[in-house]
Request: fold
Amino acid sequence: MGFLQVLAATVGGYVLGAVYYMTLSKPWLAATGLPLGPNGRPVGGDNGVRPFIIGFICTLLVAGMMRHIFTMSALDTPIEGVMGGFGIGAFLISPWLVLCYGYSMRKTALMVIDAGYAILGCTLMGLILTLF
Reply:
């Protein structure tokens, strides 16, 4: 059952990311500072499936580790899953992103957008992990 929980949480977090970044694509692209071509896409960007595969694998790793943490901490109700997921996103992943982005002189808007997804994604995955 644990594998199905992790897979369901991964799919949920990944789909949320697709909706989140499609909604915020223009401000996100502006915040990256990447040069854009006439089609509005980053110049020289990888237009293949590679970034999506890497994104799915990374989401799977996060969901798997969240399940491990939840199991070791006995978080097993939906409200505990939401609180645990929010905590992981807000107090582990987001500060690390901001630290790395700050040293690489990235725009604050990029930090906020990416940290927002980390928080929302982990919160949703925490809920899904504790639903069954």
Notes: Residues 2-129 form one domain. The radius of gyration is 16 Å.
